[in-house]
Every structure is written in structure tokens, then in C-alpha cells.
Design goal:
Layout lengths: L8 E5 L4 H12 L3 E5 L14 H11 L3 E5 L6 H15 L4 E3 L15 H31 L6 E6 L2 H5 L5 H21 L4 E8 L7 H4 L19 H8 L10 E5 L2 E4 L20 H11 L11
Parallel strand pairs: 1-2, 1-4, 2-3, 4-5, 5-6, 6-7
Antiparallel strand pairs: 7-8
Amino acid sequence: MANICENRVVIVTGAGRGLGRAYALGLAREGAKVVVNDLGVGTHGDATAETPAQQVVDEIRSFGGEAVANYDDVTDYEAGGRIVKAALDAFGDLHAVVNNAGFVRDRMFVSCTPEEWDAVIRVHLRGHFCVSRHAVDYWRARQKAGETVNARIVNTSSGAGLQGSVGQSAYSAAKGGIASLTLVQAAELARYGITVNGLAPNARTRMTETAFADAMKPKAGEFDIYAPENTAPLVAWLCSERSQKVTGQIFELLGGTIRLALGWNDGPEFDKGAPWEAAELGQKIEELVAARPAPKPAYGTS
């Protein structure tokens, strides 16, 4: 069977460990040339002396793949341009960006500081903006020059962003924003030959170790449904030319189960045909709430 990403050039941010590492390795095995971007920071964004990006590059090269390491900060707009330039300098083109970089600073809302809030929003939301914005400039210029563009952006939301997660207010807000960003990008960028989809992964990573370590622990002799490698084939397919007709979707994958998230939609309604009095709204709101389908509960509430 042919490799579905043969000669596709893909940037993966936060690709030194966990899901990003699994994506980079999976893409390379499918024939992609990969820019492995990672700062080598800790789970809270703290500086370390580690260089996991180069380790992933070495691993890719060990099985005959092509990759280069990049250490730029995805939250810096100019650095986002350098990440795109790294792809063009090394491989002469760019076909996909996988926005994966992020960290957590889990706090109950009443304990979250402004500094923690800003740090989490910055790495997730701004980090998704900076690299993709420069990539889109490149693809748009090619399309306007009369070339055919078949480009991809893959964003990373989360179940926390889709239905909330107790103790993760900043993270949930950022990931919810990314889900909305995905919808807008898909609608705006289709005209340039760019599709945009999102992921809400369920995987064992450094970021899940503190909150979900026991629940995600692999069981001897059983299919490891939380292995990061399980999501890599979906990312490879989304980065390939085969996904050209799919855009504006958020995918959840757990083990061998893949599903689409439906997101917000219109629910029960009632038209009075006249302005409401504040005092009379209560009963009707109770009726509407009772009539709506039960939502998925926020993580940590059941």
C-alpha cells in the first residue's frame, strides 16, 4: 500500500514528546518530510536543557525518513514565520501545519492567577495563530499566482474545550476557542485550497499524567486505547491529499473509536410573538431546558 503523505512537507509543533512525537513519526512513515518544532520546555512551559526535537529527527532519519528540528516559539509571530521558512529552506515547499504545541497550568477557577491564565491562552490560541498565519500567506500567494494549492491545517482542541473540564478553566477556554477558530478558518480559507480540521485527542501524555494518570494507565495484555500512536494515522490522513473534501470538522479518537463532534447547534425554542416580561421567563426556560437533549457532562463532574 502506498504511503499517503509521500513528498508532503508538514510542520508539527510541540513534536518532541507525546502526541506531537507520535504525529511526526507517523507522518514520516507515511512519506512526509517533517519539521519537528519543539522548545523542549516542561509541562508548565518552564525552560529545560532538553532537545527532544532533535531526538525525534534522529529517530525519523534512522528509518530513512526526512526531518529537520526547529526550536522557535510558536507564540512569537516572527518566530512563526521562521518555522515556515525552515520548511521551505529544508524541503522547498509546505503542505500542512499540525498545531499541537501546548502546556497546562491546572487550577480551579477561584485559584487561577492572571499570569497563569495568560500563559495558557497564549501558548494555545496565539500559538495556533502565529504559525498558521504565515503558512496561509505562503499558500495564498501561490494560489494567486495561478498554482494549485492542496494545503492542510490541523488544529488541536480537546474534550475540555468541547464540554469543559473541572480544574482547567484557562485550558478549556483556550481549547474551546480553537474549536471555533477551526470553523472560521475552514469557511474563510477554502477558496485558497486550504482545508482546516481539528482534533480532540484522548491520549496519555505528560499533560494528562497528573489529572488522569490512573484512568489512562495501560492494562497488561489489553489494547492500549490511550497510546498517543493511535491518533497518528488520523493526522496523517488529514495532512494527505486524500482529505481534500473534509473541512471544518472536529475529530475525537479513542483507541480504535473515531467520531465527529457535533458542537453547538440550535436547540428547543418558543416564540411568544411579543416581548417578554422578566418575571414570566422562568417557567418557559425550565420547559426549554427540560426539552433539550442532555449534554455531555464536563470532565470531572461524573
